[in-house]
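As a warm-up, study this chain.
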Amino acid sequence: MAHKGMIDSINFSNVSFIGILDNDKYVIEPIKGLGVFEPNRWIEAFGKSLTKNIIEAKILHTEEGLELPLKRYSVSPKKETLEFGGVNGYNEKASLLKQLLHELENQLQDSYVVRIDIAIDFNGKIPNSTIKELCRTRKPFVFKNTTYYKTEKEKKTNTWIDIKKYNKSLKDRLGYPLERLEFVFKGCYFDKLQFKDLEQSFKRMEKSIKKFAKLTVKIQSI
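Now compare it with the structure written out below.
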């Protein structure tokens, strides 16, 4: 029986998202750029600091009260990144994010996908057999409430893939035990993948998950 793989986060890249978001439903707040630098606002919105490789940062505000990051990185200053994080959670914010993604789906078709987080949820705990398989070629690295599984060659961050697990019940304050195993496919994993072609990449990601964790997974459409 295949496990259900859910797209929990997805990042898009484009020259600019202003054309897509230029209407009365959205407000864009500059945080870092020419003549503006408000790092505390970024921490307030997202709970983490701006990194040095972010040369321009904005916050996208929606009518429903969502705040989404808009960034430009030093490695690709001509491209802007729009992040949807936590689309498949167990709270109201996740529902609103999924609704927003559906609303913008047509406008985002030609944007490039530069990150996808595939989440696999387990009632109770992740099976020991899965953890043993991950540890066969990778070492666990604990940071705060998350355990990362990395090879000897990987540093704290990489541009290909991250594998991690965490207590989803604790994170979303659920009244029942739930652990999440997450495969984070990053920019170097994809070769100029546009959103309109997203489902063509599902088979490849499913094979990668099978290779790393010996799990049969069926990735669901958003």
